[in-house]
Design a protein that fits this description.
- It is a single chain.
- The chain contains one helix and five strands.
- It is mainly beta.
- A five-stranded antiparallel β-sheet has the order 1-2-5-4-3.
- A hairpin with a 5-residue loop joins strand 4 and strand 5.
- The radius of gyration is 13 Å and the shape is globular.
- The two termini are 17 Å apart.
């Protein structure tokens, strides 16, 4: 899973899978879910993310993964 924040568009994309998206559904204004060819959720796109989320802090609880911080 990857979190990608784009300052130019103030959008946050959450990559849940490396599978390509073939369908996007807007579930609420500015929040889109991406699905693969089997209907599996592969990503979440949040427009105007800084107005909808607190982007200053990220807390991971009991996540069994190696964390990589890219700047």
């Amino acid at each position: 899973m990857k979190l990608n924040y784009y300052t130019q568009t103030d959008s946050l994309y959450i990559d849940l899978s490396s599978k390509p998206s073939v369908e996007t559904r807007e579930i609420s204004p500015g929040i889109n879910l991406d699905y693969d060819s089997k209907g599996e959720l592969v990503g979440i796109d949040i427009d105007n993310a800084s107005k909808k989320l607190d982007l200053k802090e990220l807390t991971l609880n009991h996540v069994p993964a190696q964390v990589h911080i890219l700047t």
